[in-house]
Fold this sequence. Notes:
This protein is 25% helix and 21% strand. The chain has 16 helices and 26 strands.
Amino acid sequence: MKNTSFILMLLCCFSLAINAKNTEVYPTNWWVGMKTNSIQLLIRSTDDSFTTDKININYPGIAINKTYSFPNSKYIAVDITISPETAAGDVIIELNQKSGKQKIKWPIYNRRAGNGIQYAQGVTSSDFIELIMVDRFSNGDTANDKIKGMRDQSLNRKEMYDRHGGDLQGVINNLDYIQGLGVTALWFTPVMENDMEKRTEHGYAITNHYKIDRRYGGDAMYEKLSNQLHSRGMKLIFDAVYNHIGSFHFLELDPPANDWVHRWPEYTQTNYREIPLFDPYGTKSDKKKMSDGWFDKIMPDINQDNPFMANFIIQNCIWHIEKFGIDGVRLDTYTYNDLNFANRCNKAIMDEFPKISIFGEIMVHGVANQAYFEQNNIDTPFKSNLPSVVDFQSLYYGIIPALTEPFGWKGGVNQLYYTLSSDFLSKNPMQKVLLLDNHDEARFFSLMGENAEKQKIGFQWLLTCRGIPQLYYGSEVLMKGFKNPDGLLRADFPGGWKEDEKNAFTGKGMTDDEKSTQELVRKLANFRKNASAIKTGKMMHYTPVDGLYVYFRYDDSQTIMCVMNTSNSEKEIDFQKYNERTAGFASAKNVITEEKISTSQKTVIPATKMWVLELSK
């Protein structure tokens, strides 16, 4: 009996050692059959130092190449190789700590099926993206509004910078609405853990790259959402942050060494100036401040020259895509990264997932400035491999001035014409992501002076111009707000909370303008799904005349004529003036109103209107 008790005790101790709660491994798992089969494990103890960096792994197909110790003896890094013949299973890692030997499990799995077909499919000009801030869209599970032990316990919808309680279940509950609107891909601001003291609603101060925030529903809910999207033929976009972490990230609170983020003698903020990175007359000090300065006091700037930190970020991006079935990657604050590192990370992602899409946030001023950071046709010493960008130029120097400035040689809709004409700088203009607004920009409706007709022109341009259109949640129902002073651009979607009096999902309490704008988006976006000319066709535009801008999307099977009248007076349309594209067509059908027009006769478009016309022979 005594022997039996002793054996049970030993087994219990062994079990505790195998499942130790105070040691973490990053990445938390990997997969067999990956091209990325040389992995650097970062092992962290939360309470007990390692006495040596020597470890043991006795698992068929896994070889230890090198181990590393750090000034902080609670960390070890281990380079391993996973051979192609390795079978999935639990790898046992044996460690040496002050308290004795410890064994921990590190799982390797079989890959998910369908790389490039069922996931990592890429987001293309055939898609329509919706950007959602999860905390502000819909509260589907009130039980996770506050999570015990997390630093931010705010929950107050009256305060714009507190948490409001939206979650992934709320998104799942409203997928019928989203898909019915014509959306084919969802992009969320980061959903990884943001265990910061305040301002956690946006998600960009990540504190653990390997956990989905529990206030959104955690890993299981994110995977459930991914599965539901793919079952509907929709796609999921991951918002990756290469540039910084949150100040409560364990790699900042308890770093392996002091050089994992950029350190300055005193707090130094980035100058937010991308120009020194390519300026032939620029200074090294300005360049260093741009790339190494901190984005914010609560966002330590990642030192991408540190090979361990670089590996941590690259492996996490690959892990996230494989783990959750991601189809596209949006890269935050792209211009602030070390660009050689960014190229390396982009290549690692594209090597593993050849069909995936990657687009960067290039919030700069000037088409050439933007083109420098993407695949381009410019002869410069540095060549970016970034396939695509969020096209802020067509927003700042395009559709906004087109609808807010008087027409002139340089002003009004001519700015949109000039900006799009500069597409010769880019390798992939059809992959640019178009937008009217987002979580950092004022709502388009507010910029338009709350003019619903101008908002409708904006949407018709967004859904017919070259590139990939991106909707910011709620703009289809005329949500408004500026960034300062109230931050209303991040307000809650009406109807996402049970107590809401207005419900944009059902139409309850909505105005006629809100309903008609929502219906316009729904009708045009769903028309676009079957419009080859818009999705993949060519573009041709005519020089604007007196506020009238005409452009065509066309291919061998379809021609779409887009007529934008930005002036305050009606304009005559003579179809014969555009005979390079109208020749041979007898009629035109307004996609929104379904009204038919004869192309053999002149017609008149009212002031501040846009027509999307499908031509027929």
